[in-house]
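note to self: dont lose this again. the chain is below, predicted strucutre after it. 255 aa total, dont forget to put it in the shared folder this time
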Amino acid sequence: MGHSTSELPDASRESFGDTFRRLRQSQKSMRNAPAWSRWVNRPLGRSLAVVAYRRGLTPNHVTAISAVFTMSALAVVMLVEPSWPVSIGVAGALVLGHALDAADGQLARLRGGGSLFGEFFDHTVDAVKCAVVHIAVVVSLYRFGDLPSDRWLIVPLAFSAVESVSFFANVLKDQLRAGRLASSETDAYLRPDRVRQPILPSLVLIPADYGVLALSFALLPGTDAFLAVYAFLFAARAVYLVIGMRRWGKAVAAY
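---
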């Protein structure tokens, strides 16, 4: 992917700003990226990638650090009764873990390309996160939540299923697409600054953004408020999956 490692600038001789600008030239397309990912998570991940690059970390190191933040936060959700300080801290840790998840791929591009193991490791961590984040909600609501009915526990279980199917379908679609892309199409895919990206799809997809789900954990002490937001995110995600499966199927058939 890109340059060989020997052709890359020496991190110790390149300023933070120069590295940051260089990374901006090799970003994934923002097309149809949800608002949080587009304007918050990817830029934050870019800065974290530059920091990691200057510290000599590898993409796998960053993936592991991301997993530590995310899984530690979810362990707290399951084991500690929600309070406003704890839940705000949990939301912050989930947001940071998500930003680090965006940073590992950007760090790989800074270093001249990633590895197959790195891609496998990253996707495995993402798959675990997709399932465990909703299992943590089930456990927290069961142990600590003042639920109007135990039937509410079905919502996070269904959310986990929707999220897992969405993740697998997206990864498979991207892999099938990558196998059919010509090199010129790949270059365009990594240079979104040359293409005007529409804003409306990013706004419409806000409920599908993991960053918004992460922020909702700050509401856990107020069970009713959390349930209202969480149920809305689930309903929106389920609708997006139904629409997405039809579009993805057509796209794959056209590759």
